[in-house]
Amino acid sequence: MSAYHEKGYIPVPIDTSDVQLPDELLELTEQLAENVHDIWAVNRIAEGWTYGTVRDGGQMETPCLVPYQELPESEKEYDRNTALETLKLILKLGYEIRRK
After folding, report:
1. With left for phi above 0 and alpha for psi between -120 and 50, is residue 36 left, alpha or beta?
2. What is the rounded CA–CA span in Å between residue 94 and residue 25?
3. Which CATH architecture has domain 23-92?
4. What count of Cα atoms within 13 Å lies in the side-chain half-sphere of residue 57?
5. Distance (Å, rounded) from C-alpha 53 to C-alpha 98?
6. In whole angstroms, how far apart are CA 23 and each of 27, 41, 58, 99?
7. Which of 75, 81, 78, 73 minimizes the C-alpha distance to 62?
8. Cβ contacts of residue 76 below 8 Å, gap of 6+?
9. Dihedral sign from CA coordinates of 41, 47, 52, 55
10. Digit-coded pLDDT (tens) for 32-50
11. Fewer CB atoms < 10 Å away: N or C end of the chain?
12. CA–CA dist 65, 71 (Å, integer)
């Protein structure tokens, strides 16, 4: 459980630590991570954000408005974790993921 937030919100995500992804879904994680980044970038651009060498909320600039392949590994890892946890949650909730 996370620490208390000043507005009282305490995030409690579903525990997926017991979910083991099969290899084919692990491979899908990178594609999902890239798509997560692209969706984020489309939304930021629509909000008026542009590329800048450092993140500046006042100027609405971020160095992350680049193709996924050009992101620093730390940023890719954030997107990968989002994709990985989404896949694990889908399985945890009893759904199946299979390729046509």
Report:
1. alpha
2. 15
3. Orthogonal Bundle (1.10)
4. 0
5. 40
6. 6, 28, 43, 13
7. 75
8. 33, 37, 68
9. negative
10. 999 999 999 999 999 999 9
11. C
12. 9
Q: What is the reported pLDDT for 71? A: 97
Given a contact cutoff of 8 angstroms between Cβ atoms, the answer to whether 62 and 72 are in contact is: no
The two three-digit tokens of residue 35, written as one number: 């798509």
Query: What pLDDT is recorded for position 3?
Result: 59
Positions in the chain whose pLDDT score sits under 50? 1-2
Nearest alpha-carbon partner for 78 in 95, 61, 64, 66: 64
Q: Are the CB atoms for 35 and 80 separated by under 8 Å?
A: no
Token representation of residue 100:
């046509």
Domain spans in the chain, listed from the N-terminal domain onward: 23-92
State residue 8's pLDDT score: 86
